Amino acid sequence: MQTVAEVGTIIEVGMADAKVSKAPIKLITRALGSCVGVVIYDSARKTGAMAHSMLPDIDKARIKSNPSRFVNSAINNIVSELEKSGSHRSRLAAKLFGGAQMFSFITPESTLNIGQKNVQMAHEILEQLGIKIIAEETGGTFGRTITLDLETGKVLVDTVSWGSKEV
């Protein structure tokens, strides 16, 4: 994971990626399907992070070379980076996005429902870290693009299904 400090407008967070930055930067990630997008924000410092993770648990993975690929390690890493940059955990708030069921042959009870497992893992890790989830836009059967405005902490959610809304 890289800490982003350059002044610019929008910085892309790719799949299996995570970034930490501060205002006036905006962080964007595209094509959140079953992947989960985790946004963590410190309103006092106008500092935040975004992760786009594909799988729930690094501990169950054979290949662990990219911690941002996994929800649990990505969240732990971005919280650690935010704390290193001066944020206090007590000021951090989280928002969750994605976790869709992208394939119609998968039932909600299916062991293949990776989206649901990703969201569940995000809830578990954030609870363990004592970080409150203040907004969530997860599930469904459609992809999302999210943009975090580090000036305000607001997230713009774009979907093909129902357009745009601010969370």
Task: Report what the structure shows.
The protein has 167 residues and is of the alpha/beta class. The chain has one domain: 60s Ribosomal Protein L30, Chain: A. The chain has a 6-stranded mixed beta sheet with strand order 1-3-6-5-7-8, with helices on one face. The chain has a 5-stranded mixed beta sheet with strand order 2-4-9-10-11, with no helix packed on it. Helix 1 runs parallel beside helix 2. The longest helix has 16 residues. It is globular. The mean pLDDT is 92.
Write the layout of secondary structure elements.
Layout: E1 2-3, E2 10-12, E3 17-22, E4 26-32, E5 36-42, E6 47-53, H1 71-84, E7 92-98, H2 114-129, E8 132-138, E9 144-149, E10 155-159, E11 163-166
Parallel strand pairs: 1-3, 2-4, 7-8
Antiparallel strand pairs: 3-6, 4-9, 5-6, 5-7, 9-10, 10-11
Helix pairs in contact: 1-2
